[in-house]
Design goal:
Elements lengths: L1 H11 E6 L1 E7 L14 E3 L11 E9 L8 E6 L3 E5 L5 E5 L19 E3 L9 E9 L15 E7 L1 H23 L1 H20 L4 H12 L9 E6 L11 H21 L5 E4 L1 H10 L1 H13 L2 E4 L13 H19 L5 E3 L10 H6 L5 E3 L15 E5 L5 E5 L12 H9 L9 E6 L10 H10 L7 E4 L2 H8 L8 E3 L15 H23 L3 H17 L12 H26 L1 E3 L12 E2 L7 E6 L3 E7 L6 E11 L5 E3 L3 E5 L5 E6 L4 E2 L9 E4 L17 E2 L1 E10 L2 E10 L2 E9 L5 E10 L4 E8 L6 E6 L2 E6 L5 H5 L3 E2 L3 E5 L3 E7 L4 E5 L2 E9 L10 E13 L7 H9 L4 E4 L8 E3 L4 E8 L6 E7 L5 E7 L3 E7 L7 E4 L3 E6 L4 E8 L4
Parallel strand pairs: 11-18, 11-19, 12-13, 14-15, 15-17, 16-20
Antiparallel strand pairs: 1-10, 2-3, 2-4, 4-9, 5-8, 5-10, 6-7, 6-9, 16-17, 21-45, 22-45, 23-24, 24-25, 25-32, 26-27, 27-28, 28-29, 30-31, 30-36, 32-33, 33-34, 34-35, 35-44, 36-43, 37-38, 37-40, 39-42, 40-41, 41-44, 42-43, 46-49, 47-48, 48-53, 49-52, 50-51, 50-53
């Protein structure tokens, strides 16, 4: 049958003319209005025109012979992506090459988008004039077939043959599905297709009409299936991945233009797109195209999907960042389109934090959609429609389309899979299908819609309705109480390397998250927030962009990281400049020599902190009052050389080192406990041949190497001890400073690394002298437990897991926690805490993670469990940003006070409407708790709201309020001021 189908396909197009091709190549995009200023040269079919990510304007001219009466189409495939503009500079149609890597496996069909009618580009004399903006990359950021111009033609298209072609492909796939699932239908299709084949082979008069009469009757075969599939056009578009961010602007325009043209062609076609950041780019770059999108949204044919500013990572992104994703995303859709979205749309994110259900529900969303858990490499996720319950008890209705694809080809195999594989079919007969070309964008083709029209309700298929995902969720919401419940995190058994890959972007992300918290708190405290609100929002939105699920996790190309790291430095500088301005001060740099009497510090935490500033020869220690710049006590010590480079000791802890630099023992002097079972902090190098996403499953069973210690120095700053170790491994070099402060139970490790080895992982570990079946992992707004055993397939699959600021093991009597400032990948098995420090790969980013790294972590030894030991508070101090400065600025009285330290805050900011103050508090220990919040300002009233500042409910007319928290509860408060702060 394939030969018959191919013969029909070959007859659809008839060439009727060629083009004169002129092109001008540039390294970066040139706007439409500047295209004529470029220097053009002539190109021929078969010519290659550029290198990867080059840009070009092509001017195509030709003439249609007056004798041609049928509609003439442009047929274009340049082995790249391109966008056709009309004479007013409005994008009209996106083109995609058929050779794209997207279609390399054949499962999802060809991504090619090659045709567009020429009637609107043709004069009455038949002259044709076209302008195309091209990018030398396919959907997956590759140069295919040396970037040759494959086809640029004028063709007639036999639309009846095209219809026959789609009939035949659909019926052939139906026959294959029916063989196992509907014997009667199989017999009908087999007999009918034989009849059609005979007609096509003979090519007698009116053979096309005769063949179509047979296929039409076959496509009326009734189904017995009672299932219903809601199908929505989709174009998953990574905002960066195998291409730079700037190319995503162009991919977005190509995709949106393509979808708009399909909507003109197919009145029943509906499409959805998420990510307000993408819409914002289109609005800025192609405003006329944006207006067309707006009209389709008003018609209800274009669905805006999801609540987040971008489809963000939810493992590494911090707690307040996840809420800002919701705040800016939901508000954008409300302000631009008047639509209040109801679902979180994260098809491709690499696992989902256990507190996401609370964030979803308290952002006013009811539904959650993902595909990614179908990628598990060990255990099949048990549900498709289910209630997802978070660590606080919040529930959200979730659906994972049974096709396991957000790029569904909408063919018989995939649509049948949607029905047949559905795990909750005894409860519901509704599933969701996302059809179209994605990852690199592009969206649906006519072929997707043509197949759906033919496969809708025909034996043995389900009924297929093109409708919005919101309609689908509203239908299954009626059955939500009958669906199963899944509790806790949605751990993806894959892509475990993304907790560590591209360490520098993770370093800057953590730094910016913490800096923004301090920055906003200080702006509010000084009454300056309104003056800098646009700058704050712009900085936040750019930080949120870099939390996209292929940027922050480390799975993009090198150019993405070169560019975003440069931008992080600029954003960091902007914050510093504003703080210097509002404090009338100069910020003190790290390790800068200071006169201790002139040092001022702002503490953004609601507890007193003990801070240090270290210069080359001095160690200064400051006790700083809560939420203020009041320094209660200062101590300073001068640096001296120590003879003993094998020990550190204070009143609480004694540490001894081996000759190889590892820690041979840690002794808790206060409790008489030997902390380590065997030597700890071996800086060990493992071979890891995986790419940036993954970690070789069996890396621990291969020979590893220890970093070689070649020099040690010992110093003291009064009671503060410091060991400096110099390591090498091949061409890699590490300087590690280990410090123990007086009266502290935390050992601090600062690493400066120059890493030059590809396909390696640098790890450290601490085998603890205790027994426990579980480890405690910090996540956003709380913590969760994971097993330390390897008894089940699930436990074995969690050989690398994610933690936010800390991971703890304890036996209830004592324990130890690893606290980190920018590392997220842990192994916690047996009684060993193991931390992934550097993971170097060569794909997608060439020479990924080679270069300089700054890493800080601490081993915190505590009494009791992690709650009694106040691990979370220790980690918060370790991670917070405390500006040190000199100048005349005063920070004033603490903004607020909390009566209990197990309640803390994640943000203080001005409300989005600019009228009030927003404060977010949360319970961090998983316990019922009461606290008294006192606002040290004149207050008219206090309200609770949801996380995106909606639905206020008054709780007091006073500046003091009693608050009750359930375990891990997050409360958002709106504080109405009597006067401007």
């Amino acid at each position: 049958m394939d030969k018959i189908i191919n013969s029909v396909k070959a007859k659809i197009d008839t060439p009727v003319g060629d083009f004169n091709i002129q092109g001008a190549v540039t390294k970066e995009p040139v706007p439409f209005e500047n295209r004529k200023k470029l220097e053009y040269r002539k190109y021929e079919i078969g010519d290659s025109w550029g290198e990867l990510f080059d840009c070009a304007w092509f001017h195509l001219t030709g003439r249609i012979d007056p004798s041609v009466t049928e509609p003439v189409y442009l047929k274009l495939d340049m082995n790249c992506e391109a966008l056709l503009f009309n004479k007013r500079g409005i994008p009209v149609k996106g083109f995609t090459n058929g050779s794209s890597n997207f279609g390399s496996m054949g499962k999802l069909g060809s991504p090619a988008k090659c045709y567009y009618p020429l009637k609107d580009f043709t004069t009455t004399e038949g002259e044709v004039d076209l302008w195309l903006d091209a990018g030398m990359n396919d959907l997956f950021g590759k140069v295919k077939n040396e970037g040759r111009i494959e086809t640029i033609q004028m063709v007639n298209r036999n639309l009846s043959l095209r219809e026959l072609y789609y009939d035949l492909t659909s019926l052939t796939s139906l026959k294959q599905i029916s063989l196992k699932n509907d014997k009667e239908a199989f017999k009908i299709y087999r007999k009918g297709l034989k009849q059609v084949s005979m007609i096509i082979r003979k090519e007698e008069k009116n053979w096309v009409e005769s063949a179509r009469a047979v296929t039409a009757s076959l496509l009326n075969t009734e189904t017995n299936a009672k299932h219903e599939i809601s199908a929505i056009g989709h174009a998953h578009l990574d905002l960066a991945w195998l291409w730079p961010i700037r190319e995503t602007y162009r991919k977005g325009a190509r995709t949106f233009a393509n979808v708009l043209r399909l909507m003109e062609q197919y009145e029943d076609f509906k499409f959805g797109a998420s990510q307000p950041q993408l819409y914002q780019w289109i609005k800025e770059q192609q405003p006329q195209l944006y207006e067309e999108v707006l009209e389709r949204i008003k018609e209800g044919r274009w669905e805006v999907q999801g609540g987040m500013w971008v489809e963000a990572d939810t493992n590494v992104s911090g707690e307040e960042a996840l809420i800002r994703q919701m705040l800016y995303g939901i508000n954008f859709f409300k302000e631009e389109f008047g639509i209040r979205v109801k679902s979180l749309w994260l098809p491709d994110v690499f696992g989902y934090s256990g507190n996401m259900p609370q964030i979803i529900r308290k952002s006013g969303l009811d539904y959650f959609m993902t595909i990614k858990l179908s990628w598990n490499d060990t255990n099949q996720f048990p549900y498709h429609s289910f209630n997802w319950q978070g660590i606080d008890g919040s529930k959200v209705l979730a659906h994972m389309p049974p096709e396991g694809e957000y790029n569904s080809p909408a063919n018989a195999q995939y649509l049948f899979k949607s029905m047949e594989n559905f795990k909750e079919k005894k409860i519901s007969n509704q599933t969701l299908s996302l059809f179209g070309v994605g990852d690199g964008g592009g969206g649906p083709s006519p072929s997707h819609i043509e197949r759906i029209r033919r496969l809708d309700g025909i034996a043995p298929m389900a009924k297929v309705i093109m409708e919005t995902s919101n309609n689908f969720f509203e239908k299954i919401n009626q059955l939500k109480d009958k669906f199963p419940t899944f509790c806790g995190e949605l751990y993806l058994e894959k892509h475990r390397g993304t907790y560590t890959s591209q360490g520098n972007v993770k370093y800057y992300n953590r730094k910016m998250e913490q800096k923004l918290k301090t920055f906003e708190t200080l702006l509010v405290q000084l009454g300056q927030y309104s003056n800098y609100k646009p700058a704050v929002k712009k900085i936040w939105q750019e930080v949120l962009l870099y939390q996209f699920h292929d940027i922050l996790p480390g799975s993009s190309i090198k150019r993405v990281y070169d560019e975003c790291l440069a931008r992080y430095e600029i954003l960091d500088k902007q914050i510093n400049e504003i703080i210097s301005e509002i404090l009338k001060a100069r910020l003190i740099k790290e390790n800068e020599p200071v006169e201790v009497e002139s040092v001022q510090i702002y503490n953004p935490l609601p507890v007193e902190v003990l801070l240090s500033h270290i210069s080359e020869n001095h160690y200064h220690q400051f006790n700083v009052a809560p939420l203020s710049g009041k320094i209660n006590r200062t101590q300073s010590w001068k640096k001296t050389i120590k003879d003993d480079d094998r020990a550190l000791e204070n009143k609480l802890i004694k540490i001894e080192f081996s000759k190889d630099g590892s820690i041979s023992s840690i002794f808790d002097k206060q409790n008489g406990i030997k902390i380590l079972k065997s030597a700890g902090n071996h800086l060990r190098v493992y071979t890891d041949t995986a790419d940036a996403w993954d970690i070789s499953r069996y890396y621990r069973f291969q020979r590893s190497s220890k970093m070689s210690l070649y020099k040690t120095e010992a110093y003291s700053y009064g009671p503060v001890g410091e060991i400096v170790q110099y390591y090498k491994f091949g061409k890699n070099r590490i300087i590690q400073k280990i410090r123990l402060k007086p009266d502290s139970r935390r050992i601090d490790f600062d690493i400066s690394a120059q890493w030059k080895s590809l396909h390696t992982m640098l790890r450290t570990s601490f085998p603890l002298n205790l027994k426990t079946d579980k480890a405690v992992f910090d996540i956003q707004f709380g913590h969760l437990y994971r097993s330390t055993k390897n008894a089940t397939k699930k436990e074995k699959a969690q050989y690398e897991v994610c933690g936010q600021n800390w991971v703890d093991m304890n036996n209830g009597t004592w324990g130890a926690a690893l606290i980190t400032d920018c590392k997220y990948g842990f192994r916690a098995k047996g009684s060993t805490l193991d931390l992934n420090l550097i993971k170097s790969t060569n794909y997608p980013a060439k020479s990924g993670d080679l270069g300089s790294h700054k890493i800080s972590f601490g081993l915190y030894i505590h009494n009791g469990d992690h709650i009694e030991g106040k691990v979370d508070g220790e980690a918060m101090e370790f991670n917070s940003w405390f500006p040190f400065y000199t100048g005349s600025g005063e920070t004033g009285e603490a903004l607020f006070k909390l009566s209990t330290d197990n309640i803390t805050y994640s943000t203080v900011k001005e409300s989005e409407d600019g009228k009030n103050l927003i404060m977010r508090l949360y319970e961090r220990n998983g316990l019922e708790a009461d606290t008294t919040l006192t606002i040290n300002r004149a207050v008219d009233s206090i309200y609770t709201t949801n996380m995106v500042e909606e639905n206020p409910i008054k709780i007091t007319d006073s500046s003091e309020v009693q608050l009750h928290f359930t375990p891990f509860e997050v409360k958002t408060l709106k504080i109405v001021e009597s006067k401007v702060f």
